[in-house]
Each structure stands twice: as C-alpha cells, then as structure tokens.
Description:
By secondary structure, this protein is mostly helical. It has helices at 39-43, 79-85, 88-97, 103-114, 124-128, 136-146, 160-185, 199-208, 219-231, 239-249, 254-265, 273-284, 290-298, 319-334, 341-354, 357-361, 369-378, 386-406; strands at 10-15, 18-25, 33-34, 63-66, 71-74, 77-78.
Amino acid sequence: MPDTSHTTRVATLKVGDHELELPILSPTAGPDCVDIRNLYGKTGVFTYDPSYTSTASCESTITFIDGDKGELLHRGYPIDQLAEKSHFLEVCYLLLYGDLPSAEQLEDFENRVTMHTMLHEQMQNFFRGFRRDAHPMAIMVGVVGAMSAFYHDSTDISDPWQREVASIRLIAKMPTIAAWAFKYSIGQPFVYPRNDLDYASSFLRMCFAVPAEDYVVDPILARAMDRIFTLHADHEQNASTSTVRLASSSGANPFACIAAGIACLWGPAHGGANQACLEMLKEIGTPDRIPEYIARAKDKDDPFRLMGFGHRVYKNFDPRAKVMKQSADEVLELMGVENNPTLQVAKELEAAALADPYFTEKKLFPNVDFYSGIILEAMGFPTSMFTPIFAVSRTVGWISQWKEQLSDPTMRIGRPRQLYTGAPKRDYVDVENR
Length: 434
Ligand code: SDX
C-alpha cells in the first residue's frame, strides 16, 4: 500500500464546517490519487462515483494504461514489444512474478503449466449436463466454478503454496475447458491436451483435431493464437478484474473468483464485444451500408453502438487493436483470404468512423475487440468461441491481480456505500388499510 506517512502534498476539502486535508498519493505513472479513506470518518460524507470514472479501487504494480498516448505496459514493458518479441507463457510469468524470466525459470514455468493441462476425468460429466446449444461462456462459468469441488487441495487462500497451485491449474486448464466447451457444442469428442505442443498449439489441436485423422498445427495460426492470448492477458482494473478482486476480498476460493470474472467478461460492453463486433460487421455486410450504421451509432435515440469502438480509458488508439489489425492482415493473407469481405467492411468502417467528428471529438477509436473476431473466424472459430478465448487469456490477469490483492496485508472486504434516494422511514400498513 502507498506509504502516506511521508506524503507532503495534500488536497484541502471543505465540507460544511469541516475543512479536511487529504493526502495526495503519487504514482509511478498516471494521475495523482487523493486518499479519501478517512473522509467519511472525519466528515460524515461519502464520495459518489457510480461507474468509478474517477476512482482508483486499489494500488497495483502489474499493468498501466496511458489512455491519451494509447500505451499499455505490463510490469513496464510495452504491449507491442511483448506481442512482437515475447510469447504468452512468458507474459504469464511476467504478470505473475513481476519480471521477465531467465531461460531456466521460463522452462520450469512452462513445464509446470504443461503438467496441469488435463482436467479431472469426472469433470466431463459437467459438460454433458449442458444442452448442446449452450453458449460456451455458460459452460465455462459452470465448469470453472465447479473446479472448487474437484481441486480441494488448492482452495485455501491463506496458504501461499495452494495459491500458487491454483494459479498454475487455472492458467493450464482454461484452454482445455474452452476447447471442450467448443467440442461439446459441435458434437465432437473431447481431445486431450498434448505435452509435446506449446500452449497455443495444444489449444488449437484440442479445438480442431478429430480422432479420425492426424492433425498438424499450422505454425502461422499457432503464432497468431499465441499473439491473441498475449494481447488480452491483463488490462488494469477493468470490469471483470474488478469483479475478481471484489469476490476475492470476501475470502472466496480462487475458482469461484475466476468464475465470477468469466461471468462479468461475457457482457457485450466488455469481453462479449468481440462476438458482437463480428456479428455487427456481418450484419453491415457490404461497405455501401456503412453510412447507415454510422448514423445509427450517432443517433441518441438508437441504442446501437459501434461494437469494438470506444473505451473507458483509451482516448487514442488501443495499442492492442493496432497489433491485432496487423495480425489480421498477415493471417488472412497467409491463409489466402486477404479479400475477406468482413475485413474489408471493418477497414472501411474504421476509416469512415475516424473521419467523422462524432467519433473523433468523443475520442472513440477501435479497441482490442474490433479486429480480433476477424482473425478468430478465419482460424475456424464460431463467434460463440470469441469471448471464451478472451477468458482463456485474461485468466492470467485475473489471477495476477487476485494474488496481488491477497498479498496486501491491509486488504479488507470491499464494501461500497451508496447514495440512497428511496422512501424515507415509514410504518407498515395492513392490507385492509392500503
Ligand atoms: C473491453 O475496461 C477495459 O479495459 C475493457 C477491455 C479489457 O481489456 O478488459 O479493454 C476490454 O471491454 C473493450 C471494450 C469493448 N466494448 C465495446 O466495444 C462495446 C462498444 N463500446 C461502448 O459500449 C463503450 O465505448 C465502452 C463500454 C467500451 C466504454 O463506455 P464508457 O467509457 O462508459 O463510455 P460512454 O458509454 O460514457 O460513452 C461516452 C460517449 C457517449 O456519448 P454521450 O452520451 O457522451 O453523448 O461516447 C459514446 C456514448 O454514446 N460512445 C459510443 C460508443 N462508445 C461510446 N457511440 C457509438 N459507438 C460506440 N462504440
């Protein structure tokens, strides 16, 4: 936690007869924070910030976003450098432990993850309890939550060793859970993970291999899959990460906390936007219909929004979208589908929106979800698998933030207050008198 004992700068707040000096906490980067932890105790008033636009919920050392510059740093390293030079499991190590690993540390970490990719065989029954047309996110919420009923030896959050085992298990098993949710939805047999393949390759094989023939992972798709995992790994205190932190503050077990994060990520304003964006691009269909949808996005009376556009923090390009757009060009060209009509609509829609003052004045740029679906569809995934893939990647971010919060000795249960505007106190009225 920030050491406020030496803080020299203060904010002065006058509330009624009270004049209060509030410490100002200085970050490594980003806005200063006014420490209001004693505000209510000293003045009897709350602050009001219902969507946390101006509120820091925690101190963190993991990820930093500069929304104005369009920069995303993981432990200080820019995402575009990590996407180009690193790979997902190395980024997992960086997020979890704070520094890039040595060659030996990386080999040990990758081996530990590889040895935990299988699911308890009895968990297959969970998948079979769902309807075939169940959304894979519904299955993932259920199966991940149920892991607390199968992995009792890694649910005690007070035991650092159990926290470590739960972390590795979740990172390792999420691809298997996502792949099996996909296989179940298309009526194909489950394919087991392979220890001789890297993380992304084993996931692709579990999704697309069938027992009837050999399956060789295309290295181009494996690299693209790994890059998509890297780009989605962590993102400060977004809605699903904040959900995981709040669930964790009650002492809930790690599997329950991650299941809560998966549920929150599913929303179309958050991780569900990649599915919604591709469905929007397909609904637009051809570039000549773009003006109609731009007009709808600008119409206050129309709830339609350009999916994959805008962001609470980025008021410039989402750096992940830049990498994703480049990857989309590369993957589709290498797959011989560079004339993909959906990619054409996406590029022309982006150009039209960024030429329109409505979007530029509101600083609405493409976000991570704008191009990801185009790549995933070209790789053979149905739109229903886009958010589960986001969840596979974000699990390391959720877990890293979960571990950071648990290691904070001052951590207390999160319990927001409210601005109550309901009925004043009144007495019960018997039904015959109403
Ligand atoms: C993710 O938080 C994270 O970090 C999330 C994420 C992560 O990695 O964890 O980055 C992943 O969730 C990316 C965002 C994916 N969602 C979408 O693409 C859905 C479409 N985008 C919007 O719903 C919206 O932009 C949000 C939800 C992303 C951000 O919402 P905010 O910050 O609450 O912004 P807002 O809704 O207050 O919008 C500000 C203005 C509004 O106009 P006014 O009321 O001020 O006149 O911009 C308009 C909005 O109407 N606006 C849009 C728009 N997004 C905002 N108008 C048209 N199309 C859009 N996409």
